[in-house]
């Protein structure tokens, strides 16, 4: 097992990884920008290295600074968390060349799955159902128009290097195609450095259902059931839960099998997520695979009792999975609300200094956060400041626990979306499990959802 791990991240996920290392008896190194000197991940790590100024590209995305920090502190492995360098194949390669273990899949797998058009092709070849679309990236708008005719409208133009809910454009009718194609590839080039785009049929009011998978270097691959992430705003997840109210045992079994086929097709090692859309007729389609730990992994941990971060570390150290498929059982129901420092009405980020911070607790509640009273939420990074997770024996109990936890969660000094989450978990369609990725748009237009009810 490793003696010392460097954590190439910040905020709640850096802290989450520190806790896992402590339980495993592994020393930790925190890296931080000058904006994060007083951050909790820096305080709780055994060692810390400042890697640069606040801007991402000069600190948390600065490969040579992160690698130097690992060398100076004699770390043996790097945990990238999510975001930042987590899906950067070049970084994983440099780690390997420098004799550092990257806690995640191989650079080749990261590269192949990170190219979403190439990932689609690999899945078609493996026999995993994908959304009808173009075979690969598009060469020209003329080619786009031709393929669009065969798959039909409405459709979605997607950036092959896209992520974080960005780089997607809806095309409702043929007349829109040229304009959206040009906008999409321009945006993709600017945001992701790669202008390549591909086409997918727009699935109407789907549910986002993803499967957690994990594989070891010995060739064992298992799944840890699904997470439903249909509550999204602008393709970004707001609330996730496990299990999904949309799956019965038969559908769950078929989707799990497809997720395992996907993982096996690329010899997947470490934790990953296979994302699907489920349409109204019960058909499901692969959309992408995320080759890292995901923001919403706690809901899986709360219903399976498995510590995914510890398992990631053990696998990276060469150990086999500590459990088999038949050991993985779902017990109860878990819901996660992402708490963002943002104005609940305009959704604009609300950075600043937290004055009061009262975290909720009690039975069935888990709070993953790096916040505390007087902590500063810097303007430079993602606005997500906490993940509130509620577990109950039933979905109903999880919802009731989530409501009372949100009610007692006090954050002052910055604005948060706690009021929005309170409205969501009280909404009738949500309570009945009648949700889709179209839920939020409708909800925000309603008097109750917009907070004006
Ligand atoms: P999850 O599926 O785990 O919820 P998200 O899509 O919310 O993941 O992304 C997790 C984090 O990574 C977010 O901070 C998001 O902004 C960031 N992220 C993911 N992919 C990219 C990308 N291609 N470019 C920029 N940021 C990304
Ligand atoms: P990202 O890499 O940004 O996470 P995804 O491909 O996972 O992008 O898609 C993010 C979200 O966008 C999905 O959860 C879903 O809500 C929506 N989406 C993506 N593809 C489609 C599609 N073909 N039809 C309908 N919605 C889609
Ligand atoms: Mg996705």
Describe this structure in words.
By secondary structure, this protein is of the alpha+beta class. It has 3 domains: 4-103, Rossmann fold, CATH 3.40.50.20; 132-201, 2-Layer Sandwich (Dna Ligase, domain 1), CATH 3.30.1490.20; 207-450, D-amino Acid Aminotransferase, Chain A, domain 1. The protein has 15 helices and 20 strands. The strands form 5 sheets. An 8-stranded antiparallel beta sheet has the order 13-12-9-10-11-14-19-17, sandwiched between helices. Strands 3-2-1-4-5 form a 5-stranded parallel beta sheet. A 3-stranded antiparallel beta sheet has the order 7-6-8. It is globular and about 60 Å long. Bound molecules: adenosine-5'-diphosphate (ADP) (2 copies) and magnesium ion. The site of one adenosine-5'-diphosphate has 19 residues, from β6, β12 and β13. Magnesium ion is lined by residues 275, 288.
Integer average pLDDT: 97
Number of domains: 3
- Fourth-level CATH superfamily of the largest domain: ATP-grasp fold, B domain
Spatial shape: globular
CATH architecture of the largest domain: 2-Layer Sandwich
Helix content: 25-40%
**Alpha-carbon Rg, integer:** 21 Å
CATH class of the largest domain: Alpha Beta
Question: How would you summarize this macromolecular structure in one to three sentences?
Answer:
This protein is α+β, with helices and mostly antiparallel strands and 453 residues long. The protein has helices at 11-24, 40-44, 63-73, 89-97, 107-114, 116-126, 141-151, 177-192, 249-265, 297-304, 308-316, 395-407, 418-424, 428-432, 439-445, and strands at 4-7, 27-33, 47-52, 77-79, 101-102, 155-163, 166-171, 197-201, 207-215, 221-233, 236-242, 270-278, 284-290, 333-340, 352-353, 357-358, 365-369, 376-377, 384-392, 410-411. The strands form five sheets. An eight-stranded antiparallel beta sheet has the order 13-12-9-10-11-14-19-17, with helices on both faces. A five-stranded parallel beta sheet has the order 3-2-1-4-5. The protein has a three-stranded antiparallel beta sheet with strand order 7-6-8.
């Amino acid at each position: 097992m490793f003696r010392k791990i460097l954590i190439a991240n910040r905020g709640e996920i850096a802290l989450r990884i520190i806790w896992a290392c402590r339980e495993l008896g592994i020393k930790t190194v925190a890296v931080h920008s000058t904006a994060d000197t007083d951050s909790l991940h820096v305080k709780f790590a055994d060692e810390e290295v400042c890697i640069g100024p606040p801007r991402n590209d000069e600190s948390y995305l600065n490969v040579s600074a992160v690698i130097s920090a690992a060398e100076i502190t004699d770390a043996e492995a790097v945990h990238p968390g999510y975001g930042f360098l987590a899906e950067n194949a070049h970084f994983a390669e440099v780690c390997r060349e420098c004799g550092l273990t990257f806690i995640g899949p191989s650079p080749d797998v990261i590269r192949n799955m990170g190219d979403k058009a190439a990932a689609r092709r690999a899945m078609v070849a493996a026999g995993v159902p994908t959304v009808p679309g173009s075979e690969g990236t598009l060469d020209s708008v003329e080619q786009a128009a031709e393929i669009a005719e065969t798959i039909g409208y409405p459709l979605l133009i997607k950036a092959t290097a896209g992520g974080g809910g960005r780089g997607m454009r809806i095309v409702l009718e043929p007349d829109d195609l040229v304009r959206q194609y040009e906008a999409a590839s321009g945006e993709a080039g600017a945001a992701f450095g790669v202008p390549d785009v591909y086409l997918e049929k727009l699935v109407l009011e789907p549910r986002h259902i993803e499967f957690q998978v994990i594989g070891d270097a010995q060739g064992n691959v298992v799944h840890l059931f699904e997470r439903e992430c249909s509550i999204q705003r602008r393709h970004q997840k707001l609330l996730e839960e496990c299990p999904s109210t949309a799956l019965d045992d038969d559908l769950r079994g078929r989707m799990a099998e497809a997720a395992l086929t996907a993982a096996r097709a690329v010899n997947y090692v470490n934790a990953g997520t296979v994302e699907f859309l489920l349409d109204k007729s019960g058909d499901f389609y692969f959309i992408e695979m995320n080759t890292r730990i995901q923001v919403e992994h706690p809901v899986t941990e709360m219903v399976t009792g498995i510590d995914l971060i510890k398992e990631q570390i053990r696998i990276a150290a060469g150990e086999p999975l500590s459990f088999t498929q038949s050991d993985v059982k779902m017990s109860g129901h878990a819901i996660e609300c992402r708490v963002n420092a943002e104005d609940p009405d305009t959704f604009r980020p609300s950075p600043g200094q937290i004055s009061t911070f009262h975290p909720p607790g009690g039975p069935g509640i888990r709070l993953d956060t790096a916040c505390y009273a007087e902590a500063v939420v810097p303007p430079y990074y993602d606005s997500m400041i906490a993940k509130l997770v509620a577990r109950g024996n039933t979905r109903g109990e999880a919802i009731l626990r989530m409501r009372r936890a949100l009610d007692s969660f006090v954050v002052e000094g910055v604005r948060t979306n706690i009021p929005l989450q309170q409205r969501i978990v009280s909404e009738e369609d949500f309570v009945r499990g009648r949700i889709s990725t179209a839920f939020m748009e409708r909800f925000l237009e309603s008097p109750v959802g917009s907070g004006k009810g």
